[in-house]
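User: Hey, my collaborator sent me this sequence without any context and asked if I could get a structure. I don't really work with proteins. Can you help?
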Amino acid sequence: MDQSVPEQVVGAAKLGKGVDASAAPAGLFRQLGRRKAYEEVADQIRDSIFSNAVKTGDRLPTERDLALQFGVSRVAVREAVRTLELSGLLVVKKGPKGGIFVAADHQRPITDTFRNLLACGEARLKDLFEVRMLIEPYAAARVARIGTAQNFAALSKLIQQADADLTRGLSIRAINIELHRQIIRMSRNPVLAAVGETVLLMLADRLRPVGSQAPSRVALQLHKKMLDAFRARNSAAARRIMEQDIKTGGRRFALLDASIRQFGEKE
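Assistant: No problem. I've predicted the 3D structure and written it out in structure-token form, which is a compact way to encode the shape of the chain:
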């Protein structure tokens, strides 16, 4: 509540005729104060981002122009921008080409939270793997139900590229990560996508696969089977293959981190 607005008690005398005054004793309710200007500004900017009225990388009007548009002070605009910057929605750049921009990484607050949990020892890598095992098989099953021909064509292109690179002896790690990211996004659930992508990329950043290319070939074959399941609209098969794919990766990562060894165990 805005402290500049005096609180006025709604007493029993203001209750309508025929209403039992004992049901609302004096002092129980108070008139609502007006919201602070910067909160209203932040809400409108946030809504414009989530509704795609402004998109990633777009430059917002200047602080002065925003103040004129909203009919508030520049101080209120500055506070709103600072709030959204801390939330990871906006980024303020200095210099001749600077300004207020819609941030590319809306998931930064989630990433920061997970990093803090790992840093202070409240979470381990195995906890991230558990979340991945919950999210990605579900996403795969969902893609089998709602995925489009365009979605499947995009996945097919990645798989073909991985196949060609592996034949030339190149690493397909980046392609595999991108394939998993796309499957998560194709679930069309923004909350699931935000958490799922964050977990996937954090694991990829902290762990490097070990061993020969043989596991990569196994993963490639699993990805081909998964795409077949998507096209066949077989949700159960897509879920099962995704679980197998994650466990295959878990066997390699377990050599680097004992806490995730359980995910590498054979069924």
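In plain terms: The longest strand covers residues 90-93. You can pass these tokens on to your collaborator as they are.
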